[in-house]
Amino acid sequence: MTATPATTTPTPATATTTATATDAAPGAGAPAASVLDADFYGFQNLLSAREQETVLAVREFMEREVRPIADDYWERSDCPVHLFKPFAALGTVGAAWSETAGFASSAVFRGWIGMELARVDSSFCTFIGVSSGLAMSSIGLGGSAAQREQWLPPMARGDVIGAFGLTEPLSGSDTAKGLRTTATRHGDTWVLHGAKRWIGNATFADVVVVWAKDTADDQVKGFLVRRGTPGFTATKIERKQSLRIVQNADIVLDGVEVAESDRLQGIDSFRDLANVLRVTRDGVAWQSLGTMIGAYEAAVAYTAQREQFGHPIASYQLVQDKLATCLGNITASLAVCVRVSQLQDDGTQRDAHAAMAKSFVTTRMRETVALCREACGGNGITLDAGVARFFADAEAVYTFEGTRDMNNLIVGREITGHAAFA
């Protein structure tokens, strides 16, 4: 697909937002605009011309391929796995790594791509992000040169889908000390025992990065567990009411044998794992921003055509107040996301920077999707109004990659010099 380069000097006041799915013909997405009205201060201009061109290609893909099917897949709790490889063909998967980068790009660009995915469907963003973010970052940051060369190119092409197995049934935020999955070495083989929960993509992933505690030194290690390995089972978690497209799973590891060559050679402690989480926590902030924008765009479109007392409800003060508050939240969050990604590019980002971005943006997201739902009245709880899916999905995004409370404690430690963790 050939993308038209994005406008380099858009005027936010006259920018045309992408139309909602209800404006498009059935089964087809709306054409993508070069800029978004929700980017009120024109942050997209910080991207290079090549980055903006790729952003527009991703936006077009999401409008054409994902928006028309998102509600149906969400309602059925199914995942359009068939779209992973076509999406990977756009060249954004693995953009952070030298082995797979199609062109030199910034962390702001990579975050912006996640925002574009979540703007149409936060579940699709999670589905892609688990493999291209969490799994590939584990290998990119913690793998040896040989492991990076073995795994990153096929993952970037979409030939291999990854998952990330950290969270456990009995330890949510307490991953540092509460990790119960164990790894015991016998010669050149490691044997894993334990359980994981909420592992996205695990029911169909080709490889799962499993984090376990070494029984010899009590340190965290990372292992690449291939699909079909004896002793590994993944069972889909049913009855979810958030991110329903994401296929989260309970994993059981019952004597799973992994070769030493499939242990991430650069991971020797929880601190090494924390380096992965710091990078991917930025991505959750961008995803939260996209979730806000998706709900905001739907609310603006709905209130423009919904009439009460002979006028569109968008013409009433209380509705405009809600929408203006939402746009303020989006603009502030976009500024935070851009800056924390710039710090990543500069090599000056600290844990507290990423933690504050995740905490702040997800909190603004929760308020924003609620205001958008409220602006749509009773119809706001239906998928037809376009807000309900974002409203529900926001709850999961608000929680994962560290709750608001845990991230605020990371920031609090930076502020005071005292660790207040239990």
Automatic annotation (TrEMBL):
<dbReference type="InterPro" id="IPR009100">
    <property type="entry name" value="AcylCoA_DH/oxidase_NM_dom_sf"/>
</dbReference>
<feature type="region of interest" description="Disordered">
    <location>
        <begin position="1"/>
        <end position="26"/>
    </location>
</feature>
<dbReference type="InterPro" id="IPR036250">
    <property type="entry name" value="AcylCo_DH-like_C"/>
</dbReference>
<dbReference type="InterPro" id="IPR037069">
    <property type="entry name" value="AcylCoA_DH/ox_N_sf"/>
</dbReference>
<dbReference type="Pfam" id="PF00441">
    <property type="entry name" value="Acyl-CoA_dh_1"/>
</dbReference>
<dbReference type="Pfam" id="PF02770">
    <property type="entry name" value="Acyl-CoA_dh_M"/>
</dbReference>
<dbReference type="InterPro" id="IPR046373">
    <property type="entry name" value="Acyl-CoA_Oxase/DH_mid-dom_sf"/>
</dbReference>
<keyword id="KW-0274">FAD</keyword>
<keyword id="KW-0285">Flavoprotein</keyword>
<feature type="domain" description="Acyl-CoA dehydrogenase/oxidase C-terminal">
    <location>
        <begin position="275"/>
        <end position="415"/>
    </location>
</feature>
<dbReference type="InterPro" id="IPR006089">
    <property type="entry name" value="Acyl-CoA_DH_CS"/>
</dbReference>
<feature type="domain" description="Acyl-CoA oxidase/dehydrogenase middle">
    <location>
        <begin position="163"/>
        <end position="256"/>
    </location>
</feature>
<dbReference type="Pfam" id="PF02771">
    <property type="entry name" value="Acyl-CoA_dh_N"/>
</dbReference>
<dbReference type="InterPro" id="IPR045008">
    <property type="entry name" value="ACX4-like"/>
</dbReference>
<dbReference type="InterPro" id="IPR006091">
    <property type="entry name" value="Acyl-CoA_Oxase/DH_mid-dom"/>
</dbReference>
<keyword id="KW-0560">Oxidoreductase</keyword>
<protein>
    <submittedName>
        <fullName>Glutaryl-CoA dehydrogenase</fullName>
    </submittedName>
</protein>
<dbReference type="InterPro" id="IPR013786">
    <property type="entry name" value="AcylCoA_DH/ox_N"/>
</dbReference>
<comment type="similarity">
    <text>Belongs to the acyl-CoA dehydrogenase family.</text>
</comment>
<dbReference type="InterPro" id="IPR009075">
    <property type="entry name" value="AcylCo_DH/oxidase_C"/>
</dbReference>
<feature type="domain" description="Acyl-CoA dehydrogenase/oxidase N-terminal">
    <location>
        <begin position="51"/>
        <end position="159"/>
    </location>
</feature>
